[in-house]
Amino acid sequence: MTAAGRAAAGWAAASALTLAGMVALGFLPTLRLAGREGLIALAAGAAVALAGAGLGAAPVVAALARGPVARPHVVAGRALALRAGGSLAGALVVALGTPVARLPFLVWVGLAYLGLLAVETRWMVRWLRPGAAQ
Q1: In this structure, how many other beta carbons lie within 10 angstroms of the beta carbon of residue 27?
Q2: Can you state the angle between helices 102-128 and 72-97, rounded to 10 degrees?
């Protein structure tokens, strides 16, 4: 498997496990505080944050596919900008264009964004280090 493939698989596994753990921990509190509508908002918020994180991972995987990363700070900057922009755009579309319960949705976008940011930062540091793509 190539470095880009290993990086993508590692990102997907770490993100899925983190998000599954967050959803498991937040399921009952969300249900008690916001009911069924809150659970729909939880799922939508987690999906938006995961989509944004996927956008953020794309430049790193693409750079790794081209070979050793010459300017990792530029790749990381692009990744974080895409992640933030994609998450914000997704949150706006869902919050303003669907009947999802807004408050629980926005809370879950924020929580999932932060949880996945920790995962993605650690992943990016690992893969953008000099010599990591071998």
Answers
A1: 13
A2: 170
- 29-60: per-residue pLDDT in tens? 999 999 999 999 999 999 999 999 999 999 99
36 CB-near residues (< 8 Å, 6+ apart): none
Band of residue 133 on the pLDDT scale cut at 50, 70, 90: low
Q: pTM for this structure?
A: 0.93
Mark 75-86 as b/e (b = at least 16 C-beta within 10 Å): bbebbbebbeeb
Here the tokens at position 92 are 């706006």
How many CA within 13 A on the CB side of residue 83? 27
Asked if 82 and 55 touch (Cβ cutoff 8 Å), the reply is yes
